[in-house]
Amino acid sequence: MSHSIRRRLGAVAAATAASALVLAGCSAGGGDTGGDSGDFEPLTSIKLQLQWLPQAQFAGYYLAQEEGYFEEEGFTDVEIVPSGGDIVPQDALVAGDVDFAIAWVPKVLGSIEGSGVELTDIAQVFQASGTTQVSFKDSGITSVADFEGKRIGSWGFGNEWEIFAAMAAEGLDSTTVSITTQDFSMNALLDGDVDAAQAMTYNELAQLLETVNPATGELYTLDDLNVISYEDTQGAMLQDAIWADTARLADDPAYADAAVRFLKAITKGWLYARDNPEDAAAKVYDIAANAEAAFPVGPVHQLWQMNEVNKLIWTGGTFGLVDSAAWDKTVAGALAAVNQDGLHLITADPPASAYSNEYMQKALDELAAEGVTVDGAYTPIDVVLTEGGQ
Amino acid sequence: MSRRTSAILWGVLGVLAVVLLWEGYKALGPAEGVVIGAVPGEAGSGVLILPRTHDRAMPHVWDMVARLFAPTSGGSTPPLWVSVLGAAGLTLGIAAVGWVIGVVVGGVLGALMQRWRLLEWGLLPWIVVSQTVPLIAFAPIVNSMGLQLGRGGGFEWPQWVSVAVIASYLAFFPVAIGVLRGLAAPDRIHLDLLRSYAAGYGATLWRLRLPAAVPYLLPALRLAAANAVVGAVVAEVSIGMRGGIGRMLLQLAGQASADPAAPWGPTFGAIALGLVAAGSVALLGLGLRRYRRGEATA
User: Fold this and answer.
1) Does A300 touch chain B (CB under 8 A)?
2) pLDDT higher than threshold 70 for residue B76
3) A87 touches chain B (CB under 8 A)
4) How many Cα atoms within 13 Å fall on the side-chain side of residue A337?
5) Is some CB atom of chain B closer than 8 A to the CB atom of A54?
6) Contacts of residue B57 in chain A, CB cutoff 8 Å?
């Protein structure tokens, strides 16, 4: 099956426009939204901004579309907008180009303080941090404290704050640790240009494990590497979250209603990804391979990514709810972090409106009433990587 | 041997020489390159003066070629060369739009400056300064200005327009200078002859100045084509426009640890792009052959 999302959307829109409108009316009028359905016309068309190109990291959203969950919640037209680094999700949301956006919490906290915008984290999809610092076994770097005097790779572009937060907790700063900007390949580590490179469990770490070790002629394995997970440090920060426009949530009942329905749909999407990781990864790979100029890494890589992403989502907490302890830890880390140029990410606590569990809780309650439960855990699968992930 | 076959032969020899140089250095050079001033035990210290030769840094030429025929993203995706062709085509189209804008703007500016000396004094320094603005800083500004214009005017400003505008920004410069010099090229005696016929500016421009400008114009147009391609590729990367060859190169380079031959596909595509762009302008020159007296081969 190879079809473009756009074509599918077109077909779906044409075939179900009428019935879905009726559905939308039903879901809004059926008491789902607290009986204020008379006050507004339910939104049926929304846009979601991703923070990167289509890949298994965003499986839940694509599956909500593929499996028809958005239609079940009364949306006839949902556009998932990828970003190639050209679009900053929170900026697109503020500009009104999209209705919801996926972004890391620290990056948006920086935007909130930096430009005074008002955004709300309405669902914390990733409950744990997927950032790691990877070094070779013989480097002796097994904790952040070992960074002292070493050359540490970091991506920049707002992806680096966990490193500085973790270093701050260890009393290290850029005078004691040499920070080098690395690109998104792992060559800096492989060529010995850095002692430890930044890597996401679901992407760059896999890329490393898809590379042949010239010493053995086999792929690198986790036995060759020391992997420091920032989740285990004071630097851990919340990552993929769904952001909405704070003022619009308060003033526009149709938007608030759409937020709840949207969260219900993507919750079902992520449940599908949890329970069918192989199928989910295959579907996302198919979408990505057919998307315009996405050039995803191959199918095995996507399966690895799906598996790792599931681990970050299903950590034992309730899906999508912001854990206040993790939030406070993120804020504390963001306040403590100072980068190599001596800059702070934020200098004051974010406003209380920066996150709200109201909409996610409502979505979960409605799902529970419909017999969809999100308790249960993810059982990780074994993914055997291949050279190049093809 | 005809001139044509010898030209082809020299072309093939040139490519072969590059391949031999690449594989020769790869075979003989040190795998980890040559670094001077490295402090033992300190990662990334010293300066790399000779490149690394291992397979990740310098894949074999045949691996690069083989990669062109393997699926772009694994599975049943189309072969890499097809994706490269599509991306290169898009960039070429945008560069062509940029080239046309650049030629029109540059031509008008050049003609105005040649007509009125005061304009030349006033404009020329600014035109020269304009080329010193760093493109990677300038490109996002053009894009965000375009987006704001679109939001204010209620229309959508596509990203490719920004890329074309930036390409034209690089392309107009050689044309403006070429037209300025070219239109001023006719001999005094010829200008005086036309004046004695009581020919006006328009007739002089059409019958004397433009034909005389052709030898200056053709190299300028070729330069403009090359500049437009460079501008389009850099602008794509810098504003993050997807679909073109520049962005594709960047993206595959991000996967290069595990798939080092992949970024060479779009690299070859970019080379082909430059050749096609320069070649198209050369075709233009064929039609103007009778005016090309005294043109320096550029």
Assistant:
1) yes
2) yes
3) yes
4) 26
5) no
6) 187, 191
ipTM of the complex: 0.76
Confidence of residue B42 (pLDDT cuts 50, 70, 90): confident
Domains of chain B and CATH, by start: 3-58 (no CATH), 80-291 (1.10.3720.10)
Residue A69, pLDDT > 60, answer yes
CB count, 10 Å around CB of B66? 13
Look at residue A182 and give its three-state secondary structure. coil
Residue partners of B25: CB distance under 8 A and separation at least 6: B53, B58
Predicted local distance difference test score (pLDDT) of residue B133: 85
Q: Choosing among A191, A218, A284, which should be mutated to test the B contact, i.e. which has the most B CBs within 10 A?
A: A191
- Interface of B to A at Cβ within 8 Å reads 32, 42-44, 52, 54-57, 70-77, 83, 87, 151, 159, 239-244, 247-248, 251-259
Percent residues over pLDDT 90 in chain B? 53
Instruction: Count CB pairs under 8 A between chains A and B.
Output: 114
The Cα–Cα gap between A390 and B72 comes to 9
Contact A303, A383 (CB under 8 A): yes
The mean pLDDT of A276-286, rounded to a whole number, is 95
A263 touches A243 (CB < 8 A): no
The amino acid that residue A331 corresponds to is V
At A177, list the tokens. 């640790």
Write the DSSP symbol of residue A216.
T
CB neighbour class for A78 (10 Å; exposed up to 12, middle 13-18, buried from 19):
buried
How far does CA A244 lie from the centroid of its chain?
15
Contact A192 B254 (CB under 8 A): no
From the list B286, B189, B179, B193, the residue with the least C-alpha distance to B224 is B179
Pick the more confident residue, A339 or B126. Answer: B126
Residue A335, H or E segment = helix A324-336
Q: Which residues of A touch B251 (CB under 8 A)?
A: 53, 84, 293, 295
Distances (CA, A) of A121 to A45, A351, B223: 21, 12, 51
Measured at the CA of A35, the angle between CA A31 and CA A36, to 5 degrees, comes to 140
DSSP state of A381: P
Looking at CATH, the fold of the domain delimited by A131-232 is given as: D-Maltodextrin-Binding Protein; domain 2 (3.40.190)
The residue-averaged pLDDT of A146-174 equals 90
The 3-state DSSP class for residue B230 equals: helix
The HSE-up count of residue A142 (CA atoms within 13 Å, CB side) is 4
C-beta atoms of B74 and A299 within 8 A: yes
How do the domains of chain A map onto residue ranges? 5-127+238-389, 131-232
Contacts of residue B183, defined as CB under 8 A and 6 or more positions apart, other chains included, come to B110, B111, B114, B205, B209, B210, B212, B213
Measure B267 CA to nearest chain A CA, in Å: 15
Neighbouring C-alpha atoms within 13 Å toward the C-beta of B298: 20
Do residues A267 and A367 touch, judged by C-beta distance below 8 A? yes
If you search the block for the tokens 């504003």, which residue do you land on?
A: B239
Which residues does B166 contact at the CB level (< 8 Å), separation at least 6?
Answer: B98, B135, B138, B139, B142, B231, B232, B234, B235
Q: Does A289 touch chain B (CB under 8 A)?
A: yes
What is the spatial distance between Cα B152 and Cα A305, in angstroms, rounded to a whole number?
A: 41
Cα separation, A241 vs A169, in Å, equals 24
CA distances from B61 to A96, B16, B19, B87, B265 (A): 48, 11, 7, 22, 11
Kindly tell me if the per-residue pLDDT of A158 is higher than 80: yes
Chain A positions touching B43 (Cβ under 8 A) are 150-151, 192-195
Q: Which CATH number applies to A5-127+238-389?
A: 3.40.190.10
- How high is the pLDDT of residue A389? 78
